[in-house]
Amino acid sequence: MLKITPRRKRWLKLTSARWQRRVLFVAGGLVVGAAAVALAKLADEAQFAFNWLLSQSRYASLIVTPAGFGFSVYLTQRFFPNAQGSGIPQAIAARHLTDTRARSPLVSIRIAIGKVLLTLLGLLCGASVGREGPTVQVGASIMFALGRLSPRRQPGLILAGAAAGVAAAFNTPLAGIVFGIEEMSRAFETRTSSLVIATVIAAGLTSLALMGNYAYFGTTPIALGRGIDWLAVPICGVVGGAAGGLFSRILITMARGLPGTVGLFIKQRPLPFAIACGFAVALCGLASGDTIYGTGYAQVKAALESGTPLPVDFGVLKFLATTFAAISGIPGGIFAPSLAVGAGIGANVASLFQHTPLGPIMLLGMVAYFAGVVQAPITAFVIVTEMTDNHAMVVPLMMASLIAYGTSRLVCEEGLYHALAKGFVAKAEAGAAGHS
To answer: Which of 217-226, 346-355, 424-433 is least confident?
Structure first.
């Protein structure tokens, strides 16, 4: 009979704890992947419903969109505080906090449910928002909730949930890992790296099982030609980076509060401000011929696959609509809308290159604007490469992303998500201190 020595007992206990931890991360990845797929399917249905409404009367947006914005902000403030906006700053803030009580208001099952419902409400009323940022907060919330069931503290759960959310939302596992390292943690943590990768794999496999293997924006194998075509790289990098930096600066300024009477009005009357933002989005939609509502995914995918240019004013109007949606206080992400704005910028730059295919320059615009917004250049070119399955464009995308990052830093010194996260950290710490 095998004798259980104290040494063997310690080894068995340690091994059991390790396997429990691994199972926890993998199981969490499966749940996050299923949640991401469910949100993706429901988001599509919400956009179809809004498009059906427009087919009955395109002027219905002048009523539905402002009313939807106001209702969404009311529900957010009344029932789901800290669910507003993208959700990525909340996940970053939760990682910076060490007190579980301070983390709970930012990442919890209650927040995850509210985030899903209110993101769908935004898409249902035509808001220019995406579902990918919300999926990050949902993933972080799910993993944090599972971690609370464990008797021991499990580091890296929020990071793993956020990375899995990106991977499952876009079907981009590499981008999920890079996003976790570059944006969520801004460091490579050897202790948790394998568990983060395992969580991303589990989420990715769940997405593949439920939705199949697909490239988010379809396949665009065409690359840049030689010579003058490469001038599009610095042009897109500078223009996209400057526009992305401007967008970030607007959001950071609004989050911190405008000075004077205007800022006081917005702070004291969030519902009228949200309604006004919704009305502005509806006006942008009417001016665009109903092309800037929602994520912008369908318009960009069609342009990439067919080679048909987007309308000349698509990029500008999508920029304005996304800005109004982002500052209104409604829950909703900026990933997909930012890629759509970048595609519009790329289409405009492509008009300067008459004999160059449209697709490659649109991709340059997408990566440049996205890198300018999030100031995470590696994540930007990895995610665009994976979403379009175009490895021939890796080098130009890298170049455009780095140029855009440098340009964006000249316009906005702080990264958007981390700048917004500071506000959530301060608020959460103050709340935890008040309850102690």
So the answer is: 217-226
- DSSP letter (8 states) at residue 415: -
**CATH 1.10.3080.10 is the classification of domain 227-422:** yes
Q: Where are the beta strands (DSSP E) in 84-200?
A: none
Q: Does 20-211 match 227-422 in CATH topology?
A: yes
Residue 273 confidence (pLDDT) above 90 = yes
Q: Where are the domains of the chain?
A: 20-211, 227-422
pLDDT surpasses 50 at 32: yes
User: Regarding the domain with residue range 20-211, which homologous superfamily does it belong to in the CATH classification?
Assistant: Clc chloride channel (1.10.3080.10)
- Residue 190 tokens read as 């050897």
Q: Which long-range contacts (CB under 8 A, 24 or more apart) does 94-99 make?
A: 94/140, 94/144, 94/158, 94/428, 95/158, 95/159, 95/184, 95/185, 96/421, 96/425, 97/425, 97/428, 97/429, 99/429, 99/432
pTM, two decimals, is 0.90
Tokens of 428: 């959460």
**pLDDT at 195 > cutoff 90:** no
Question: Rounded to whole angstroms, how far apart are CA atoms 251 and 259?
Answer: 14
